[in-house]
Automatic annotation (TrEMBL), chains A, B:
It is found in: Cell membrane. One of its GO terms (cellular component) is plasma membrane. Keywords: Cell membrane, Hydrogen ion transport, Ion channel, Ion transport, Membrane, Transmembrane, Transmembrane helix, Transport. It comes from the Eukaryota. The lineage of its organism: Eukaryota, Metazoa, Chordata, Craniata, Vertebrata. GO terms for molecular function: proton channel activity. Belongs to the otopetrin family. It is a multi-pass membrane protein. It comes from Salmo salar (Atlantic salmon). The keyword Signal does not apply. One of its GO terms (biological process) is inner ear morphogenesis. This is Otopetrin-1-like. The gene is LOC106583410.
């Protein structure tokens, strides 16, 4: 598509391009201009062009947030909200345009990327969106209560945000899998605008939550007589005129985490849509998932539910007792660490068992192109950095600390296990996502049989054999294995000494019982799934010993440590949320 | 390789695997264990495994740095230096092992990735390494002067660092292009260890430089009577016993930037080596570069030299006058902005001209796999974020500021142009790197001619046709063009309406004169090359109006703004350095 437009626009620069009559030429130039405006740019450049646009949008927003952090400045929250509102309106206009245009072309069957999302992700997203809507309602209620002293922007914003949420969920339900093939450059801008609008909403949510937490933390410290910090004044300067104000304020505190997760999830999904623009799908791998079998699922769910129940217990104990006297506080924190150590040891064992099963049953990796999976992997790896950083800081703090509360060494063990657990879990999830599925492999094996002539260009373009050529490119060793089976021509370009592998592998596969293995893996996935939900619940609902134990704060200083936590905590929450999503995917695959 | 080891290790888990005698079995098990330790892991997992290890190393280092920032803590600089020294020694051991092993296998011709680096990059790197060595000598001299009150670690560190620098440059000269094919998992750990050791050295350099700058800035502010901040005590508590101490201290100030650049460059090169492990090279594209033609190079170099000369003038004026009275200071800053605006306008025009030339002469993009180029692109894009962030903060500050110095609006224009310039330059560089070279295209055109039977699997594995299959995979549209030329079979799998493109494109290429076009592009590349050097020199040698103009500091607050600058300034410097490297590459390609 890209070169097509480019060739047209080139003609524009040449007077002697065609010899036609004047009016014909005019209409032709008009058509060409239209083409060059919409499809002219080569794909790589269009990506960079729109990517740079989106990045700059985010940077403007972040710099506005930084100014607001400095209380003396003339930029207020209203300015930031106006900026975000503008971005939201632009996104709404684009989505409307997109949906209308698609509606008009409904006769054309649009290409869909089935990997882009699953119905359970959509369901979860809808739930998060509903909670976001409730948050908007609370925000509006809050404004109504304090309307005499708040700017009107503060009520426009939640209304626009609610509209945006509804429209966006509709868009995600019906269009997120679309592979866009027309107006590519323009659509790229539209999608990336949506991605970065959501990212900015995420940043803004994170900032609000960090402020909330900091204030909460300061109030608590002041109440305990630890410090006497000047607090940021967040309360409006007038009285609430309705009775439900405190409900709204407290409700908002618990709804924030969901709103944050909602926006980061949406931006990830839209990013996949952006990467899919102009892509040609590999039809072989674009098939429906098989139904998931659930027999033999006993140990995993039971252990998982036990973990979840004990988590809720610990959460309740923690929240009630951490604000009490110093002694009770110390033992509460110690309880948290003991609980954490048990959880993490179990999770590590589960992950290691999974990895050992994979080692005992080697299977080629699935190397077909799948932007959604690649992004999942990168996000998993990237978001664990936040948690690792907190843990390493704790390790350093414990080693260097001069005071020695009872939980000093349990904190050390907890932090080290926390690092190890993410290390192992990432390996397990990524290997699970990249291994070829058994059914997929069977099909490949059938395909590998036929005589050499089917590997001509014509047949290599028809669906069933597409996958093989692709594999030969992305992971040449794999390709060689398949091809030598057919050719037996020996040392062909870089794949020596591989003659015996395919038969042996097949033989081995027959020996193991896949259902038993897959049952264990399913149990592991379910258990880890529940554990990750547990470890998400704790910090999301206020059980954050890193704020309360005082060790890190003493070593790093209050400012540095709260900055680290405010930056890394939301990433840690995202990590747990994202691994829950990935583990569900793993559960369906194994 | 991966599956090979995996199959062996699977046998270990089965008692009935083979029926052989006891001693035979033992030696067999030993061999298998050896294999499974070195080559067992599938590629994707080995990457994640080693990547996670490296990331954690860096995080430990960064958390140590954070503690040092807090003066009261019991962790001192010596602890950080001991940690870094340990990492360096491990890297030295690995490099020694690698070089010795390679030496023993010298009969085997190792595969090399010619894209990995060029001799001029090696040359530049050697120069940076020499300056780093001088820095080490200065550090040793500094220690000798103050030896009565400094820890011995402070002299061990520069000695080890100097050894590391020499050994590493040797390694880069002779082994950086190697494509490692044996002991893959182990080598991955070795290379990633080297990557993150250098990244940590980079971080440590950035931190030292930020401290230097902050102290310098505070001294200046205090001297001008602006503020009276408590300064971090960086001076040792005894007198220098040799006369050259001040020379060492001042010399270190100017040598730091080079040391920082050296480490980031090395880690980028080693990262490419890491990505290349276990890769199978596409032999067609793995060929030597053509000699670069230099006729017609007049306007670019002349304008570039003029830019460089005026830069040095501005730098001298700035450094001399910025510490004088408030009036002179203000006009000095204004001069800087005027100069910057002229430079940036010229650079934008050059970039736009280059892009227009590309639009007028459409050519398919080169989509072959090339980790080095992909990384270049990502680094260019990623590192411009730092500079964009500073610029957007300036824009916000100028708009929100209550004071109005003479340079207020020139600062605004300068910041906006600075954003635009990077936007355009990135597009220009990336398009230049991804366009197919004229000679490359000619070859492809010749290859596209022959009859269908050459596209069988056998021939698709032999070098000359390898590239085509690959393109068909990575950018299916391109592949379709080539294939339809042969087949004319119409609507094959996702590439409709493309029949006329190839002939038209060839015809168009004949019409343009490539030498003229390439001359203009070469001039643009040279000009931008010189301009980027200029814009690197200014901040590297102390011309940083963002610290001096006071506008941003007023709006964001001192702490926030210096944090932003300390984070973003080194990235900005890296951006300039990296675009210089990329533009040299562009110069050779066009």
């Amino acid at each position: 598509m890209a070169e097509h437009g480019g060739l047209h626009s080139m003609c524009l620069n040449k007077v002697d391009c065609h010899s036609s009559s004047s009016s014909e030429q005019e209409s032709e130039i008009f058509t060409k201009l239209k083409v060059s405006l919409t499809e002219d740019y080569p794909q790589k450049n269009a990506e960079i062009l729109s990517g740079q646009y989106g990045t700059n949008l985010l940077l403007i927003g972040v710099s506005l947030m930084l100014v607001i952090g400095n209380n003396g400045a003339s930029v207020k929250e209203e300015h930031l909200l106006s900026f975000i509102t503008t971005l939201i309106i632009v996104q709404l206009l684009w989505m409307m345009w997109y949906i209308v245009r698609r509606g008009m072309q409904s006769n054309l069957q649009a290409e869909k990327d089935v990997h882009a999302t699953t119905s359970w992700i959509k369901g979860g997203l809808t739930l998060l969106a509903l909670l976001s809507l409730i948050m908007d309602v609370f925000n509006i209620g809050y404004f109504v209560g304090y309307r005499s002293c708040l700017s009107a922007v503060l009520v426009v914003y939640p209304i626009i945000h609610a509209t945006h949420t509804i429209a966006q969920v509709h868009f995600l339900w019906f269009h997120i899998k679309d592979v866009i093939k027309s107006f590519e450059t323009f659509e790229r801008f539209g999608v990336i605008h949506a991605v970065f609008t959501n990212l900015l909403l995420w940043c803004s949510g994170v900032m609000s939550e960090a402020n909330h937490l900091l204030n909460h933390h300061n109030t608590r410290l002041t109440a305990l007589g630890f410090e006497n910090l000047t607090m940021v004044d967040m309360e409006p300067h007038c009285n609430c005129t309705i009775s439900a104000c405190s409900v709204f304020v407290n409700g908002l505190y618990y709804l924030y985490p969901f709103n944050i997760e909602y926006h980061i999830f949406v931006s990830v999904m839209l990013f996949v849509m952006w990467k899919n623009i102009g892509r040609t799908l590999d039809l072989q791998h674009n098939r429906k998932r098989l139904a998931t079998k659930t027999q033999g699922l006993v140990v995993g769910p039971i252990l998982g539910l036990a973990a979840l129940a004990s988590t809720i217990g610990v959460l309740v104990v923690y929240i009630i007792h951490v604000e009490e006297s110093l002694d009770i506080r110390e033992s509460t924190i110690a309880i948290f660490y003991y609980y954490g150590i048990v959880m993490l040891v179990l999770m590590c064992s589960a992950g290691v068992t999974g990895l050992l099963i994979y080692r005992a049953d080697p299977m080629p990796m699935d190397t077909t192109k799948n932007p959604s999976r690649k992004l999942d992997t990168e996000l998993l790896f990237g978001s664990s950095v936040g948690s690792w950083f907190i843990s390493w800081c704790s390790v350093v703090a414990v080693s260097a600390s001069r005071s020695s509360p009872s939980y000093r060494w349990t904190n050390l063990i907890y932090s080290l296990l926390s690092i190890l657990e993410k290390y192992i879990q990432n390996l397990f999830i990524i290997e699970s996502l990249y291994r070829q599925r058994e059914d997929g492999e069977r099909e490949d094996a059938e395909v590998a049989g036929p005589a050499p002539e089917i590997f001509s260009v014509t047949s290599s373009l028809s669906p069933p054999y597409n996958g093989i050529i692709n594999q030969a490119y992305e992971n040449p060793d794999n390709g060689c294995v398949t091809l030598e089976n057919v050719q037996e021509s020996g040392q062909v370009n870089g794949c020596p000494q591989k003659h015996l592998e395919v038969p042996r592998q097949v033989e081995n596969n027959v020996e193991v019982t896949p259902s038993k293995k897959s049952q264990i893996l399913k149990n592991i996935a379910v258990f880890l799934f529940m554990c990750n939900i547990s470890l998400w619940i704790l910090p999301a609902f206020g059980c954050r010993p890193q704020y309360d134990n005082g060790l890190e704060e003493e070593t790093f200083g209050f400012t540095t440590w709260t900055t680290v936590l405010n930056f890394a905590m939301p990433i840690t929450l995202f990590y747990r949320m994202h691994s829950v999503a990935c583990l569900f995917e793993v559960f369906q695959r194994v």
